[in-house]
Design goal:
By secondary structure, the chain is an alpha+beta fold. It has helices at residues 6-12, 35-50, 54-74, 113-120, 166-191, 206-213, 216-219, 234-265, 274-281, 328-338, 348-351, and strands at 2-3, 24-29, 79-85, 90-96, 103-107, 125-130, 134-141, 144-152, 197-202, 222-227, 270-272, 286-292, 298-302, 307-310, 324-327, 342-346, 357-361. Strand 3 and strand 4 form a beta hairpin. The chain is globular, with a radius of gyration of 26 Å.
Length: 364
């Protein structure tokens, strides 16, 4: 068992019951809570609703047996995320280092929205901790500070060598520092190619020398420069990085929403409202969406032809097959994962006047 990752969500977004039946059970369990009472209530409620269909009830009971056994065997691992279906011979279990809200969902596909929300808050942050002759590089991801590389160079100290003029000594020392900075930059290029942002930290003027030399592809990712002791405690480093990232995310969300508003005013590359966003995201045209946290909209889906709509229907208007009731926002998020559309969750106050969901288009 491992911590859930973006690649898992993308794969899960493409899994569904081909007969459009509610055969998948998704469980989000926080073992530090009184999850057993919650689970018992949800299991009883689902059984009562499924008892008229022996096929679905039998699948649910068998699937729940697998899930309960898995929870018992893994409850010391932290928050658990489980997707299972007995009749589809499907079972996957993950953990999250973040607390999850207890949840049990029966649907035609794995219920991935809570996992998306968890991972949306996990961005890769690079940290360069350096002075003029030492450098340490880390990546912060899922609350873990992962060491990537450590460099050091025997730079001439500040006292000139015997027989050397001050000018010669300073020139040689400057070249040695410059050579060391090039080595750091080369390492950063290979280590930080997939991070979202970089924080540059350390004591003294090494940071300024580095910034003067760093290429634009790295420089544009550097969101803050911080004076820090080279041997700062790891917990303090994580706290500082999280604080910087929180501030950057708030600023980025504000810029993004404002950009969407500007595009809407000029009838440009933007779309807003549930029906409109759904229509465009199903075509793969949306580059990034912003959606109100906790938003849910009643709708339907035909698993046969993948048609989705808001409101209620019994039969698919396209292929006339029976449809299933769904949360349209969950379906939008699944299509986002399939088409590599970035998802940003924001407060209602930011997108309430845009129908609670909006996006920027790749093309019109």
């Amino acid at each position: 068992m491992r911590e859930i990752q973006d690649k898992d969500i993308k794969r899960l977004a493409n899994i569904y019951d081909p007969e459009s039946k509610d055969t998948f059970v998704s469980a989000y369990i926080n073992p530090s809570t009184n999850f057993r009472n919650f689970l018992n209530k949800r299991i009883n409620a689902c059984r009562n609703l499924l008892k008229k269909d022996s096929y679905l009830l039998d699948n649910f009971n068998r699937t729940i047996e697998i899930i309960e056994e898995s929870i018992e065997n893994n409850k010391k691992q932290g928050s658990l995320i489980i997707f299972a279906s007995h009749v589809r011979d499907f079972f996957e279990i993950y953990y999250s280092s973040k607390d999850v809200e207890n949840l049990l969902v029966v649907d035609t596909s794995p219920y991935i929205r809570p996992a998306i929300e968890i991972l949306e808050n996990y961005r890769k942050i690079g940290l360069i901790l350096m002075n003029t002759n030492r450098a340490k590089m880390f990546v912060l991801y899922q609350e873990k500070l992962i060491p990537r590389k450590k460099l050091s160079e025997d730079i001439l100290n500040r006292h000139k060598k015997g027989g050397w003029s001050q000018a010669r000594f300073q020139r040689v020392r400057k070249e040695e520092i410059k050579s060391f900075m090039k080595e750091v930059i080369e390492s950063c290029n290979s280590i930080f190619h997939d991070v979202d942002s970089i924080v540059l930290a350390g004591p003294g003027n090494g940071k300024k020398i580095f910034l003067d030399m760093v290429p634009s592809n790295l420089k544009e990712k550097i969101v803050d420069v911080v004076d820090l002791d080279f041997d700062e405690d790891e917990k303090e480093l994580i706290r500082i990085l999280n604080k910087i990232e929180e501030r950057e995310e708030e600023a980025e969300e504000g810029i993004l929403v404002e950009k969407i508003r500007e595009e809407i005013l000029r009838d440009g590359l933007a779309v807003y409202g549930v029906k409109e966003v759904l229509n465009e995201v199903m075509k793969g045209k949306v580059d990034i969406i912003v959606v109100e946290k906790g938003l849910r909209i009643k709708g339907w889906i035909c698993e046969r032809c993948q048609a989705v709509g808001t409101g209620s229907k019994k039969l698919c208007p396209n292929c006339k097959e029976e449809v299933s009731e769904v949360d349209v926002i969950e379906e939008i998020l699944e299509f986002c994962e399939r088409f590599n559309t970035r998802i940003v969750f924001v407060e209602k106050s930011e997108v309430g006047d845009l129908g609670s969901i909006a996006g920027l288009l790749r093309y019109k």
